[in-house]
Protein 1
Amino acid sequence: MSEAIVKESSTLVQVEDLVIKFPVRGKGEKKFITPVDRVSLEIKKGEVLALVGESGSGKTTIGRALVRLLTPTDGKIIVEGKAIDEYKGKALNEYRQTAQMIFQDPFGSLNPVKTIESHVKFPLKKHQGYKGEALDQKITDLLVQVGLTPVNEIRKKYPHELSGGQRQRLAIARALAVNPQFIVADEPTSMLDVSIRAGILQLMNDLKDDFGLSYLYITHDLASARYFGDRIMVLYGGRVMEIAESKELIKNPLNPYTKLLLAATPGSESQIDLTNMTNEPPDLTEGRQGCPFVHRCPLVTDLCKEKVPALEEVEDGHVVACHHYGSQALTF
Amino acid sequence: MEEKQPVLELENVSVGYDSTAGMVQAVNDVSLKIYENTIVGLIGESGSGKSTLGNAIMHLLKNNAVLTNGTIKVMGKEVHSMNKNELRKFRWSQMSMVFQSAMNALNPVLTIEAQILDVYRSHYKNMSKKEARARARELMEIVSIDPTHLNSYPHELSGGMRQRVVIAIAIALDPKLVIMDEPTTALDVVVQRSILDKIKQIQKVKKFAILFISHDFSLVSELASKVAIMYAGRFIEVTDSKSLSHTDQHHPYTEGLINAIPHLTAEEVTITGIPGNPPNLVDLPSGCAYHPRCQFATERCKTERPVVHQIDNRDVECHLYDAVRKEVLES
Ligand SMILES: Nc1ncnc2c1ncn2[C@@H]1O[C@H](COP(=O)(O)OP(=O)(O)OP(=O)(O)O)[C@@H](O)[C@H]1O
Ligand SMILES: Nc1ncnc2c1ncn2[C@@H]1O[C@H](COP(=O)(O)OP(=O)(O)OP(=O)(O)O)[C@@H](O)[C@H]1O
Ligand SMILES: [Mg+2]
Ligand SMILES: [Mg+2]
């Protein structure tokens, strides 16, 4: 529709038709699942794209591909104009600095035998070349920035001596220590209490403003996606179901899956009775046909079972994949 | 008017853990009544003592834990003065619990049916296998799982289905009280919501009382009619859940929790966390345990433990409301 508008602010990450397959143990012949199926997305500089979808929808897999912890089966990932699959050796290391990932479990990603200080000291030294007093000052600054205070007490502690929220802050500090441009934050708050969750979201928001960072924010909580994300992308069964600006998506969801997700979120106004909802996960097998949401969709027709709905821009920046998005009749 | 007998009655209950660092005051002088056909939510941050209280009610405390004070009555019977045999009969038939992360605690080598039959056969010695089987089928239908899955092993079911099985087992013997400890935390929102809707639906028919433990504030305030908010082992506020959506006169910690939730639809989207860290339960802060994190704390909060004030439908344990109460008394 309006190409010109989209390109206005500069693009940092551009993903085109990303496909990721994994082998699965089948009986006899080798089988594959395709948990990420032709996904395209764009993240602008300083933008937060929230990636929402239920467990197993492929969110983490996309995140891992973006920071090159995983090599895609097909498709292109272009960051700052360069295809990242071309990076090797030193260039790959450099790329891994600009793109950092914060993992879901704050404890699993920390080293239990290293002090808090050394978690950030090493990257600051190695990647940013800090030494001596400047290094010391930088460590202090960074820990203050993520709210790990009093610094003098905390820097000598070990991960097990921190609370869940403090551990997640440390993971963020460590990601920042290499001075990245882009952070994949994979459910960074789902293990935390509400009171601490809010603090982490606030922190990531402040850092976005201070450092001009871009984020891919992975979550299954629409409320926090709306709070932190500029735009929200909804994923189901490895496919993009809908993308829109956060406010627009919450106010005017078009895809039946988005509507279901919204209705299920505490605090939502729409009341859909889910008492008899099946808990059947989507089919991820290679070569599956039609829309991934057919098993649970109330609007399903034969067309949905045969043909994958294409992404269609319905309004400026509001894109949806559904054969029947115009239909109002929705009962689950 | 004669008062109805509560299903659960807690009176000044305290539970401590013996640890190398000293006595962990996990539950500290809590009182509460729950009546039939109601859902009471219990929320609080990690480590505030929620599971400990649940375990104490079931009389299933860990070895190093002691009920140091108070009484726990279920259907008028003191749980901690029952002998082993009485307890065995009482548990599951009168009170049951869905344990935290229970869906991973199903026995991996037994079919779902075998695990459900176990429950029936251990309580009803004379029940025929045929009848137990019929009941198991019925139970699966209640929780919306296709009875063919009775022959499945736990790993063949999705997380949401396993959680439904665990709930089915907890209600198998029609208990009067069901304690649910974070029954949906590990699940995604859609599955979570469908299970909660199911719980509500079953409860309408069976009329048992539920103590629903969670740290998800928005979830509990939607599900329960009454909510107890736990901080450092104490109920700092017990409130009807309706008043949680309004920000009128709560405990400062409750208000902090309310402000920490990102809302889905409200126009204003700023949220604020609660500064500071959870308290050390071996060495609790003096006075009100929340005072180091409270923006309203005065000298008095550091030295004197607040008493409970009743404001409308809320019991709030905070010095802030001394003045409010005085005003009310004087007018
Ligand atoms: N290395 C792997 N090998 C095989 N299958 C995998 C691998 N990694 C992920 N999968 C499968 O791919 C699918 C998508 O997984 P992914 O971790 O991306 O989901 P997710 O959306 O992040 O879910 P969650 O919300 O539970 O974290 C799942 O079915 C998962 O089992
Ligand atoms: N066996 C034990 N020995 C010593 N301390 C214990 C033991 N079990 C629990 N505790 C401590 O008792 C306190 C209360 O624990 P409890 O499990 O009741 O918390 P909770 O509110 O259920 O937290 P969560 O939300 O994380 O499940 C915690 O500080 C915990 O560390
Ligand atoms: Mg994931
Ligand atoms: Mg617990």
Note: Chain B is about 30% helix and 25% strand.
Protein 2
Amino acid sequence: MSSSELILSVENLTVGYNEELISKINLEINTGDVIAVVGPSGIGKTTLLRTIAGLVKPISGDIFCKAPKRGGIGYIPQKLGLVRHTSVYHNVDLGARSGSRFFSEPKTWFKRRSERVTTAVERMGLSDKMNEPVRRLSGGQQRRVATARTLAQRPKLILADEFLSELDEDNISIVLDAVKEYMAASESAMIIVEHNIQRATEISTRLLQIKNGELVEYNPSEMKFDLDGGLI
Amino acid sequence: MDSISLQHVEKGKYQLLIILGLAVFTLLSAVFALGLGSSSNLDMVTSWKIVISDTKKFFLNIDTVADNLWYNLTACISSSSCEDRSLLHGIEREGTNIQNAIIWDWRFPRILTAIVGGIALAVAGALMQGCLGNPLVSPLTLGVASGAALGAAFAIVLGFTILSIPELAIVANAFFFSLVVVTIIIQLGKIRSISAESYILVGIAITFICGAIVSTMQYFATDAQLSQLAHWSFGSLSRPSGGNVILMGLILASLLPTALKWSWDLNTLSMGGDEFAISTGVNPSKIRKNILIVSALMTSIVIAFTGLIGFVGLAAPHMSRLIVGNDFRKLIPCSGLFGAFLMIFADTLGRTLFAPIVIPVGVMLSIIGGPFFMYLLLRRGGHH
Ligand SMILES: Nc1ncnc2c1ncn2[C@@H]1O[C@H](COP(=O)(O)OP(=O)(O)OP(=O)(O)O)[C@@H](O)[C@H]1O
Ligand SMILES: [Mg+2]
């Protein structure tokens, strides 16, 4: 990537529902950044992503997002949110549809949309399941459908909540390769919530750990682990 | 999440045909309604002859029509001593002057109001039911209408008006006060923890507050003012003039495309809620806010001119849902057509049934529409 530009900037943000979960969040995220957020269960990782996505309003502070208003943010939820009785194609098409603008080129809209779907499904290694109803897929396959849906949307900022769980090593590398390829081609940024700290350091360019209700930033290349995979 | 399934895709063509049929049917009933009335000067056949021949002449002499329109727009604005020309001025016409006046000056704007108002209220209802995820919502739920009523009461009882043109004073007040409510809705969107339910609850609170203020004013009002206020609150199609209708139509036409543009986003919202919507790339809170603003505007521009008409906005979307299902790309146009048809039907019945007494369309709609609506819903309930 030649030059990186600012995608998201967060100032003095406090997130939470009835009580504060994480406060004093200050972040600047540029294209090419892969930010991993780690922390124990129930600490507020999902809440942070939901706040950035606009699903939860911040308790205080500001979020400035430079991604396009329509389809600029891609969200891969922890609970997937797929339409279970329709096909993989249909589900991925939901993302492709919000990411492609009909009025820019009405004639080729359908073609472009279906190209996006097939490419994304292929990258996730699910081509043979294209017309299968989602409810007949395994947990890991369903997770890849959710990722394919967001890739087909082609967002500038991907928010991925535990999108590698339930996947074996082979599939993890399939998904990571596809996402990295997409990010290189589209100059986008990504925030990943990951409970496995070791994996988080491997895949991220910046690591944020939630400690005592605040974010602490680490450089992943300087991380050391004890035998249990805990942070030293 | 099973509202949109593959079966719907297959049924799509059939449903499009139904929508097309409904459009033609609505148009025909509009023409039919033009010929119906209680005047002893005019029977049905004569009025259809006039309608057909005048329409033909309108298109055959489009130059003269354009001249007349231009004359109205220029000469009449620059000099005060000029009389408005009818568009067919200078062309020999079927029927007597009084017959022409009944059809074109009296019935035509009325039916046009029915169409424009019906479309606006029904589409607003469909949009609001979709984005708030609640089938009980109608355009009057958000409190826009009670804002309008408050505005009208200010004008009638206190003589407090925004615009000092007498004919438009009440309309302007009603519109302005409903805009105040729209502004409150916009501000609500910025508040933390605002959910679909809180929009509805705040709307109900606004309705109560405005209602209480209006009641207080009624308590101190004179008899004449009371009757004027009561008349305003019976929604009626006789108030808007031809010019008013065109204004309403233009505003509606500018808002409709945006409504259709958001129909897919509404689909995702109604399929699986906010988290589902954002995971397919649709921003739910933004969409919800925009849709509420557009539908509130549609509602307020209509009821400012016509007074309170509530039933169409609730019933038309439900009736359409029985035919085309939950896909908003079809539901929005279908609701609009249904709304227009219901309004024409109720108004024509209202002005012919007990002629020469005219029953206001708002009242008529609820009387005939209510039982029919109940029948439809109960019948569907039986099928489940
Ligand atoms: N909709 C909600 N309303 C109120 N409180 C909530 C809501 N969702 C989550 N919480 C609370 O907020 C806290 C943080 O939840 P969150 O889902 O952000 O945790 P997390 O870090 O993602 O955990 P995990 O790793 O288990 O997914 C929890 O204590 C939870 O009970
Ligand atoms: Mg979580």
Note: Residues 1-5 of chain B have pLDDT under 50 and may be disordered.
